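Lab meeting, item 3. Inverse folding demo.
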C-alpha cells in the first residue's frame, strides 16, 4: 500500500519534521500561504463548519489544523511518521479537537473509506510521489459525489525551474536546496487530464505569486509557476 511513495522524499521531510510549526523555518512559505489556501477553499465550498475533510499529504498539519479551526472534522494522512507525530503533538498543545491524524496512504484510505469525505485537499504533494495520477484517483474515490477536491503543485517549464528551484531554493533560500525535482513538476494540462480520468470536473484554477521585495504572496490567474486546482465529483457518480 506504500508503493506510491519515494523513500528519499519521506526521509527529507522527516529530517525537517521538528521545524513544521516554526514560522521562521524552512516551512515559512507554507505558513505564509496557508491563509490564501484556506480562503480560496472556503470561497469555493462555502463555510467549512460541519464538513468532513481529509488532508492528503498533511505533513505537520498546518492546513489540517486551520480547517479544523473553521469547524470542520479533519483527518490528516501522511506516510512521514515523524511529521505526523509533530502534527499530533501540536494539535494536543493547541487544544484543537477537530483534527486527527493517521499513518496511511491515500490509496489505502480510499479502499477503506470510499466516498466518505465532503472535501479532499492535497496540497504541495503530488510533485513528490512516483505516480501523481494514482494520488488524484485516490482523492476522487475518497470524496462524496458532489464533493470538492483541491490540489496544488508546480508547473513544468523554464520559468518554474528558474523561480521555484533556482530562485526559491538557491538564491532566496525560501526552501532547502533539493526540496523539489524539476522532472516531477506537473503541467496544468497533465493534472487536469488526471482529474478528468478520475471522474473529477475542474471548476477553477488559480496561480500563486510571490514578491521577494515585499515578501508578499497572492493568488491570481498566472499558473506558470505555483498553481491550485479545484475540482468537483459528479453528483450522480456511483
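The presenter then showed the designed sequence:
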Amino acid at each position: 500500500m506504500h508503493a506510491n511513495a519515494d523513500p528519499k522524499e519521506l526521509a527529507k521531510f522527516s529530517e525537517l519534521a521538528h521545524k513544521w510549526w516554526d514560522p521562521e523555518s524552512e516551512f515559512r512559505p507554507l505558513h505564509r500561504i496557508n491563509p490564501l489556501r484556506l480562503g480560496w477553499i472556503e470561497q469555493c465550498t462555502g463555510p467549512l463548519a460541519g464538513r468532513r475533510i481529509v488532508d492528503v499529504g498533511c505533513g505537520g498539519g498546518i492546513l489540517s489544523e486551520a480547517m479544523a479551526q473553521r469547524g470542520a472534522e479533519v483527518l490528516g494522512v501522511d506516510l512521514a511518521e515523524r511529521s505526523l507525530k509533530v502534527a499530533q503533538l501540536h494539535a494536543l498543545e493547541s487544544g484543537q479537537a477537530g483534527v486527527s491524524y493517521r499513518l496511511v496512504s491515500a490509496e489505502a484510505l480510499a479502499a477503506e473509506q470510499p466516498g466518505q469525505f465532503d472535501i479532499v485537499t492535497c496540497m504541495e504533494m503530488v510533485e513528490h510521489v512516483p505516480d501523481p495520477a494514482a494520488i488524484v484517483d485516490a482523492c476522487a474515490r475518497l470524496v462524496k459525489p458532489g464533493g470538492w477536491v483541491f490540489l496544488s503543485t508546480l508547473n513544468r517549464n523554464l520559468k518554474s525551474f528558474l523561480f521555484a528551484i533556482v530562485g526559491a531554493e538557491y538564491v532566496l533560500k525560501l526552501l532547502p536546496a533539493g526540496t523539489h525535482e524539476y522532472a516531477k513538476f506537473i503541467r496544468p494540462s497533465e493534472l487536469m487530464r488526471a482529474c478528468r480520468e478520475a471522474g473529477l470536473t475542474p471548476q477553477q484554477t488559480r496561480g500563486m505569486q510571490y514578491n521577494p521585495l515585499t515578501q508578499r504572496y497572492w493568488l491570481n490567474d498566472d499558473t506558470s509557476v505555483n498553481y491550485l486546482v479545484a475540482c468537483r465529483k459528479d453528483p450522480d457518480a456511483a
